[in-house]
Design brief:
Three copies of one chain form a homotrimer.
Chain A (H helix, E strand, L loop, with lengths): L5 E2 L4 E2 L4 E2 L4 E2 L3 E3 L4 E2 L4 E4 L9 E3 L4 E2 L4 E3 L3 E2 L4 E2 L4 E2 L4 E2 L4 E2 L4 E2 L4 E2 L4 E2 L4 E2 L4 E2 L4 E2 L4 E2 L14 E2 L4 E2 L4 E2 L4 E2 L4 E2 L4 E2 L7 E4 L4 E5 H4 L11 H4 L8 H24 L1
Chain lengths: 259, 259, 259
């Protein structure tokens, strides 16, 4: 390991871990086997809000350069980040979370399994995010309905939902199972399951079964054409959720037909 | 102090100052007593535009990791920043400025006392910002009305105004005393005192006395329900400005009643 | 050179190159004469996608602190960046590229000569950008029309086009020669040469000959009033392209007159 690295003797570091130059690893850090942490990172940034709980990084994770992780958050195996990522305290994430470069997770958030954030996503405090959610660049969470106040209405994103580039999610909104939010939208009210919305305020323009481009060989929900971008270990959960999306589509069609 | 820190002998550093690993402190820097500067920062980045004027950081300030401060700016006591902040030359700020992570202050800006910027705020060159202003994540200042040109119309934000997430402020606009700009708006003309605007172009949807949520126990202006988030030393100025907001509300009601 | 710098013996570094503290320079890097690389950078970040091709930085370039450049990209002479810039693999750029602080270039992009990006521009994979293009803060490229999918429709920006602050460019759009896109727009279809568009969806509000402010002494295209912001070596190409913009304006007027 490089002589330019500063690792606290209190850090618990697994086997076959690489830590890059000019990186600081603090106390109260648990790093799983096989992790790779790049240069110029701060791992386990101390803060009193974490109340002594450690930062836990699951096995086989990759944290790219210039990233900062606070004390008091826990990540499942296979975390992968871009560069310059900031994650504050008390966040919990499942397996295979990917966080794009320069994303900023403000703390107290929960992520399911196999969630993917692109670059510069800003996740507000207390957000609840399901499994297989996609957040494209510059998605922006909010939580204070009358800023500044002490009110906090957390945003919730259900499984397999997709939020495209530059969307603002207003305080307290819920985005449903398998829903799609188009680029640049402002989501001011809940998005029902399998609905596709766009604009300001975001309004329904179609439902998921009609959204994807059949001429390009795509089929909803997206695991039908994008399964290979995930490891096989994720497929059983993926298939279970895709099945629930199918059910929601069927129910929606039945309701539409009976009108 | 860490052996991994690079501090110029020309820097003037107060008592009880902590400086983190892998941080560079240049010449022409004055750091007040009791400051804490994290790892991986660049303090006093040299540039000819500063014309030799130093960077001055007031007492009891905290600068978090990966931040860059240029030569030639001056900050009052109690500056607090997030991570990855960039502040260029010739900016002047009062007491208690807070700058969120990854914010970018382009230079020649002025900030009053007790201003708060959330994450990723982009303050354009020459912006003039009053006391107790709130800038939420990704607020974006502009200044060139016919880009690219040499014209520069600076944006001005008056005391106690609140600009919510993702707002774009077009060149030369003035946001009035106690005004509120809703998330995702594009402000293309001046916002009068105590008016609440939203949309593109931002238009008035109410005035401040009708905006806040009485059912939640809130009362305008925001110091009426958010005073405890500031230190007592700030309260006399806060109360003075809140009184001016009250006066503006009264005047607005009188004018409305006389129509 | 500082004893706090980590430079691989495999890096090929020209004459009169300065490299700042706490910077890592990897193998497979070619740095031209007279370059200045700041502190806390990562130059030549290894990645298998680059397939061993080096990172090439042209002569007399300046890379500011906390920037990350991947293996496998090539930049002409006079590259200048802000702080915290990220450039991934397989990007090719001409002379005099300027990249603003915290911008993120995702890879496989091509830039002509004398292009300028302001802060926090996000260039998506595979973007094709002409000569003398201006991208203002937070311009956001996209490329997947049905996210997530394996489809990739690259955005193309023609010579001398100007994209103002906060614009989202939807997958596959082409912005024409000398075109102007107003702040906060969402570009959902192609923008014809010398057209000025704004809004969501971006629509034409005028053409370039009617856009600029004659009262302020400005004249389209912008090199007519902004030539001095570029070095003389760039002027022949600038004048050639400005001439093509003039031709496009003439053709547009002829067509309009003949209707």
């Amino acid at each position: 390991m490089s002589s330019f690295t500063k690792i606290s003797p209190g850090a618990r570091i697994g086997r076959n871990v690489e830590i890059g130059d000019f990186t600081v690893v603090h106390d109260d850090v648990v790093i799983g086997d096989g992790c790779k942490i790049d240069s110029h990172c701060v791992i386990g940034y101390p803060n009193p809000v974490a109340q002594g709980r450690p930062l836990v990084i699951g096995a086989d994770s990759t944290i790219r350069s210039h990233s900062v992780f606070y004390q008091g958050s826990t990540f499942g195996d296979g975390l992968t980040t871009g560069h310059g990522v900031l994650v504050r305290e008390n966040t919990t994430a499942g397996r295979g979370l990917r966080i794009g470069s320069n994303s900023d997770i403000e703390g107290d958030a929960t992520f399911g399994d196999w969630v993917r954030l692109h670059s510069e996503v800003h996740v507000g405090k207390g957000a609840r995010i399901g499994h297989f959610v996609w957040l494209y660049p510059r998605v922006q969470f909010t939580n204070d309905p009358f800023p500044p106040s002490h009110l906090c209405l957390e945003v919730a994103i259900d499984d397999m939902a997709v939020i495209a580039t530059g969307v603002i999610l207003m305080p307290g909104v819920r985005v449903g199972l398998g829903a799609f939010v188009g680029a640049g939208s402002i989501v001011r009210s809940d998005v029902p399951d399998i609905h596709c919305v766009t604009g300001d305020p975001a309004r329904t323009f179609t439902t998921l079964d009609r959204f994807v481009s059949f001429e390009h060989g795509l089929k909803a929900p997206w695991p039908r054409h994008f399964r290979d971008a995930y490891p096989a270990v994720s497929w059983p959960l993926m298939d279970e959720i895709a099945g629930r999306v199918d059910d929601a589509i069927s129910k929606h069609r039945s309701r539409a037909a009976s009108k």
